[in-house]
Write a structure and sequence with these properties.
It is an enzyme of class 6 (ligase). The protein has 413 residues and is α+β, with helices and mostly antiparallel strands. 35% of the residues lie in helices and 23% in strands.
Length: 413
């Protein structure tokens, strides 16, 4: 979890915008950098780091000797960076997973670069040689990115809208803050004075299409066929691989555990793979609820069965109500269902930060949307209608469950 921020074409002294960049400091407690872009006036980057991969290096904006004209700020993890380096013969300068974006962009351009990434990410890429700015976001919008642009060439970008609101207040012309769409990239031309103009916005991947990064997938081709044994085997293989590739973190890993099917499967698989990978610590699981609530009891049973180091967080209705205002501040939404569901996650994330050393947290978000787990799916008029509803929910995850997972954890670094 990191916080990225950038500004292009401001007519004010850039130092006055540092306060705006600091409004997302909670996203990266390990380090902060604010840097002007050489040779271009009124352009700068801000970065708040939570070190997950390559703790020694990896400060941003990321720049390497081979491409001195490229500046990169990104938030997320690129699970296939080692496979990409091997397939295309890249020679990385650091162990940072995001460096592969620079090599891919130089070799293939922005669209194929984004399409080849298997991971969760939001990026701001500056090419001072071609005078271009590119922004993009992963297929499901797991990592957030907001933009503020005006007709006169001003562009500001931030992981959270709160890092842009103070900028809009100082503007004399109307301006709106928008999300960068998941699965899309946008290209801007950059002038010497820092002003930009949008060239194109294009989708590089949709959840209904096969991913281009599958060409470097270590799984190879799965067995074909729709008999029950083959289908079950393929689901298990894909699920285990999804968990395994997320073990690349160099910080301690934990898992949220409600005792329901989704989080229990993730936690059990995580425990199995952690033993196989011989991680030097025991996986911590975390549950939250009122004392002896159904979720707490179910999670307790699962944790005992899989052998995790289990933590229970109890909270009262009064504690939940007191947290609502802060939850809304971090969520940046008044959606009732999202706010209600976020209170517990916000409080357990606070506990994890204060009472444990787990930094990378697994959870079961997205399972109900993908596998049609919500009760109302039972009333679908046809399999086609059910599939169409599932796709709609997957495309809107970034507005609800993914939003909750990102903001409640980022609130506590």
């Amino acid at each position: 979890m990191c916080g990225i921020w950038a500004l292009f074409g401001s007519d004010e002294c850039l130092s006055v915008h540092v306060t705006s960049a600091m409004r997302i400091a909670h996203r990266g407690p390990d380090a902060f950098r604010f840097e002007n872009v050489n040779g271009f006036t009124n352009c700068c980057f801000g970065f708040h780091r939570l070190a997950v991969v390559d703790q020694l290096h990896g400060m941003q904006p990321l720049r390497i000797n081979k491409f001195p004209f490229l500046w990169l700020c990104y938030n997320g993890e690129i699970y296939n960076h080692l496979a990409l380096n091997k397939k295309f013969g890249f020679k990385p300068q650091m162990a940072v997973d995001g460096e592969v974006l620079l090599h891919l962009y130089d070799r293939f351009g922005i669209k194929k670069m984004a399409a080849l990434l298997d991971g969760v990410f939001a990026f701001i890429l500056l090419d001072t040689e071609k005078k271009k700015v590119f922004v993009g976001r992963d297929t499901y919008g797991v990592k957030p990115l907001f933009k503020l642009s005006t007709d006169d060439g001003f562009l500001a970008l931030c992981s959270e809208a709160k890092g842009l609101t103070e900028i809009t207040h100082a503007m004399t012309s109307p301006a709106s803050i928008e999300q960068v769409l998941p699965g899309h990239f946008e290209e801007f031309d950059l002038k010497q004075n820092g002003k930009v103009s949008s060239v194109q916005m294009e989708e590089f991947h949709c959840c209904t299409d096969g991913p281009e990064h599958a060409v470097c997938d270590s799984l190879g081709t799965l067995p074909s066929g729709f008999d029950e044994d083959t289908v079950k085997s393929n689901i298990r293989t894909l699920f285990e691989n999804a968990v395994k590739k997320r073990l690349m973190a160099q910080r301690r890993i934990g898992c949220l555990l409600s005792g329901g099917l989704d989080s229990s499967l993730v936690a059990a698989t995580l425990m199995k793979l952690a033993k196989e990978e011989t991680l030097p610590y025991k996986i911590q699981t975390f549950s939250i609820g009122s004392e002896d609530s159904p979720d707490i009891l179910a999670a307790r049973k699962v944790a005992a069965y899989i052998g995790s180091e289990h933590h229970e967080v109890n909270f009262s209705a009064e504690e939940g109500i007191r947290a609502v205002e802060e939850v809304i501040f971090h969520l940046e939404t008044y959606d009732i269902t999202t706010v209600r569901a976020s209170v517990g996650m916000f409080l357990v994330a606070k506990y994890i930060r204060e009472k444990s050393d787990s930094v990378v947290i697994f959870s079961g978000e997205g399972a109900d949307e993908l596998t049609q787990g919500y009760i109302y799916f039972h009333k679908a008029p046809s399999p086609r209608a059910s599939a169409e509803e599932s796709i709609r929910l997957m495309k809107e995850l970034y507005l609800f469950d993914v939003l909750r997972a990102d903001r409640t954890t980022a609130a506590h670094g």
